[in-house]
Amino acid sequence: MKSLRTIFRYIGKYPKLVSAYLVFNILSAIFSVFSLGLLSPFLMLIFKQGDSFKDISGKNSLNPVNLLKEWLYELINSPGGNIKALFIICLIIFGSIILKTLFAYLSTYFLNPIRNRILNDMRMGMYNKILMLPVGYFTEQRKGDIMSKLSNDLNDVEGSTISVLESTLREPITILLSLIYLVILSPELTLFLLVFLPVSGFILGRLGRSLKKENKDVLQQFGSIFSFIEETLGGIRIIKAFNAEKKLSKKFEDENESFFVLKTKANRRRDLASPVSEALGVTTVLCILYYGGRLVLSGDSGFSLNAGDFLAYIAIFSQLIQPLKALSNASYNIQRGAASIERIEGLINENVSIKDPENPKELKDFSDSIELKNVSFKYQDIYVLQNINLTLRKGETVALVGSSGSGKSTLADMLPRFIDPNEGEVLIDGVNIKEYSLTSIRHQMGIVSQEPILFNTSIAENIALAKENATREEIERAAEIANASAFIKSKEEGLDTNIGDRGLKLSGGERQRVTIARAVLKNPPILILDEATSSLDTQSERLVQDAVNNLMNNRTSLVIAHRLSTVRHADEIIVLEKGKIVERGNHNTLMALNGMYKKLIDMQEVK
What we know:
The structure is a single chain. The protein has 607 residues and is of the alpha/beta class. The protein contains 24 helices and 10 strands. The chain folds into 2 domains: 347 residues, Up-down Bundle (ABC transporter transmembrane region fold); 238 residues, Rossmann fold (3-Layer(aba) Sandwich). A 6-stranded mixed sheet has the order 6-7-8-3-9-10. Strands 2-1-4-5 form a 4-stranded antiparallel sheet, with no helix packed on it.
């Protein structure tokens, strides 16, 4: 079964823990069976069948209980031997049960870290893959579904597939040792028993197989609900502003009702496993009682069974029912958890389209230029960029302008290899960017986006994201260059102020200046700027623009311009329209053309 193979692949990383778990399981099972086997001499002694002890002499010499019976026969015939024998039997049973319980605890002691390690490894594997996947992957996937895999799917694995580890590793040992002892007690009765077990397994297996698809539907629907909630939380202001509460509530009600129907159907099928397995177990016990009772009453020396051994047989078999039931439920739960395993493994094994070459070169210094040669990019069959030729020389500032959807951000994303062109190539210092390691490329670049990307931690930690082991002095200096020192000092905790989810405790201008300070701290030779002032008020815009100007000093910059007044002094302005370069030149040249650029300028001036 694929899901179990996946789990055992993770288990294989911890051979010492697994070995300890198996050893203590075996010891626990041995003492469990042995303690139940002692019921036979106990019952024979109580019901004054001491002579029966002698009858087993020489039979089943491999059976330790029979060896004990022979010794007890000698003891019983001594003065006061019955009481001594009873005390010894009770003492041995007590010791066996204590050891069984101790070893059972020790097996669980080593099982817990195995279970938690598997979940940790899966969670870590998914998180690392999320960090490795290209930016384009997340434009095609719903964030809520990814979050569902990290939360609900993992919980489902823990509650179903991981929980059966105890059954798949421990119960077979208990079943095997119990069956061996049952064969020793009565081969005929055990053979009769084994006829029923495959039938029970077949019936339960048929019930479990259909659950996998149903549970996969449940998980996908849960991912949709998770995405819906995430979108609602992110857009709560807009929802309220447009009085869309009822509309959203109705839509969520439909999603929630679909989840209810799928979940109820899956749970009903899951819950069917327990009564069916219990009914099969009771049927098997009744058949054994009938057939075993006939062996006891027959008196046939070849196939007879004494009453003490028969009762011990029933006691051991009764203990066998629980592990058999656990295994049947485990098989059923594995089917339920298989859908979660597939979704988790699907994310972990997702193909990473943008990765380092086998023998990557290191871009240690940027010394000459960045060049895009005949670059085209498309989503599916729709071209976003077509035949782009562009050179960004060291120390120059190149601005990208154009209407929304013209391909500006897509072009900029090619420099740090967030995406790769479908046609053409991107060169840095004359070398195809695909030949460099991703780390070395991105080490040479700093990015300030239009939407400030901040994390729910302190101002200092957000700035220090740009540089490992950054000193306090370096962080303060970066904040000063980014015109952020004044507002930071006004906070009670200064740089240690927590800025909340996505930095929402700060104003828009303050958030943007923190991101600029982060870029300053990195001190990269190449800057990619997505107009950082486009959504700010006049006062904040002036502070942020000054910070941007400080940042751009003596650096090579690619600027995505929304407010065209900010790029009039760019060395070259590239005008994009529907993925193509329609105009290029400096501000004065483009104004003289009286084309698209001038049209965009006029539109903004009218506003």
